[in-house]
Amino acid sequence: MPQLVKKRRSGWAVLAAGALVASLLAVGTSPAVALDDKSKQNAPAATSACVGDATGDMMFSDVSEMHAFRGDINCLAYYGITVGYGDGTFRPNADVSNEEMVLFMERAAAAAGADAEAVVGDFAMSGSDPVHRGDMALLIARLLVAATTAESPINVTNNDDGTFAVSTVTDPKDWDYFADSRSSQNRVSDSAASALYELGVANGTGMGYFSPASTVSRGAMAAFITRALAHTTARPEGVTIQSDEPGGVIISVRDANFHPVANAAVDTFSAAANKVDEAFNEDGSCYEPRLTGVGGNANVCEIDALDAVTGLSGDYDPGTISVNVKAGGTTVWAWTGENGDEVEDGGEGLASINLTETAPVSADSAKVTTDIPMGVDRIHFGDTVTVTIQLVGAMDADAVRDDGGNSYRVVTQRNTDRNIENDNGDPTAADATEDVSTDVLEVDASGKVTFTITASDPDPTDRNNADGTSGESDTFKIDRVRVTFTITTVSGGQDVDDAISSTTSGAQTIAFSDARSRAVPDGATITPTVDFLTRPMSGSASNVVTVTVVDQYGKGIRGHSVRLSSTHDPSSDRSSTFPVARSTDSSGSVRIGYTYTGAGSVESLVANTSSIADQGNNDPTDDVETLTPIAGGTKDFYWAAPATGPDVASGAVLASNIERKTIVVANSAGPQLVLYDDNDQYSVGVSGSEELTSMAAFEEALAADESNNDTVVVSSYDATDSGDVARFVLTVVANT
Question: What is the pTM of this model?
Answer without folding.
Answer: 0.64
